[in-house]
Structure prediction request, 449 residues.
Amino acid sequence: MISIDIDKKLGDFTLSAAFEGDSGVTALFGPSGSGKTSIVSMIAGLTKPDRGRIIIDGETVFDSNAGIDEPAYRRRIGYVFQDGRLFPHLSVARNLDYGRWMTGIERDQAQFKRVTELLDIAPLVKRRPGALSGGERQRVALGRALLMRPRLMLLDEPMASLDAKRKSEILPYFVRLRDETKLPMIYVSHDASEVKALASRVVLLDGGRVLKQGGVELL
Amino acid sequence: MLSLTPEEWTAVALSLRVATVATLISLPFGIAVAWVLARKNFHGKALLNAFIYLPLVLPPVVTGYLLLIAFGRRGIFGEALASVGIVLSFRWTGAVLACAIMSFPLLVGAIRLSIEAVDRKLEDAAATLGANRRWTVFTVTLPLALPGIIAGAVLAFARALGEFGATITFVSNIPGETQTISAAIYTLTQVPGGDAQALKLVGIAVAISLLALILSEWFGRRAGARVHGV
Prediction:
């Protein structure tokens, strides 16, 4: 369960959002510039809200009143960025292993195999990120975040940089991810069909504010 | 070309030793200072920056004289260092210090540019994967800045190899101890009939510098391919 109530001033833009997420996929839906990416960045701990509270799984990771601000590297929140952000100097295998290495989790071959098979990236592990297609890159980014054993997954328009054909190729992986891991997810999108295919809960955003929240019937 | 006297070979070997040691010793400091200048904002940053670049604009003889005052046997630091057995004045180790200081701005400049060019979004990605600041620097920032670090090191090496003014002021021109290629050439041009010998050393200096630049280009390209490549 995720509970968020944050305010942040970004230049002329004021973000003021409060919403809840459930244990399934919560979609943040709205036009570009509605503050979706800023919200996930604050949940991840990469941007600091001016005021408010972020609670994940019963743990408060940010609370301006109590002076709590857990740094990003201790939040254990997986983040798949629009642009993948694979480390270009590391092989796919080292990219996938990076989170496990940094967090000091035991090496788990079975888990590595499970994730690479779930995302069909096992044949890519020896390659460099520069040699991957856009769709492959996003699947590796997803696998990298999963292997760090997050308690929440943030997916920030993970298909935005892909063309329609690639999107239809990769969407099934997100469905599989939702069904086979019981990981709560926040999925940012401005594409209603994506959200309908994946989300159990929808938060409608516009101009930095929550217009409505509820089931997918809101769309 | 190979008819150099033993003294001249000594000068060549000494130059290579001084430049190599100066580069290796200043590299960790150069990386640290470059990182601070690239990634931190603090009061006095402009002052630190100006201080680092000072040897580039000061007359080398001024830098050498300041080193002599500070690190000479009766200098502020020299006396303290001498009491623990480290003597810099009129020793090859002093030449190392002079060369390290003179080449430091070039080292820092190149590394700073390459650190500034590292995409900070990748550092954010590392943080979400559990890497704290220090690990992010060592596993993401510095590996990605490697081409610039190599270029800076080679540039510093070449600069150290050619250093003359500060070195001769600080540690003089003692054959076998502080007489580098530059100082040997200077000495030969001061004696009648020394031109031929001087020219040979000039040829060697040109060859070493060219080789360093070609190697830097090659290493830089390889590192660049590793960092951004496929």
Summary: Residues 2-218 of chain A form a domain with the Rossmann fold fold (CATH 3.40.50.300). The longest strand of chain A covers residues 2-10. Chain A has one domain: 2-218. The two ends of chain A are 22 Å apart (CA to CA).
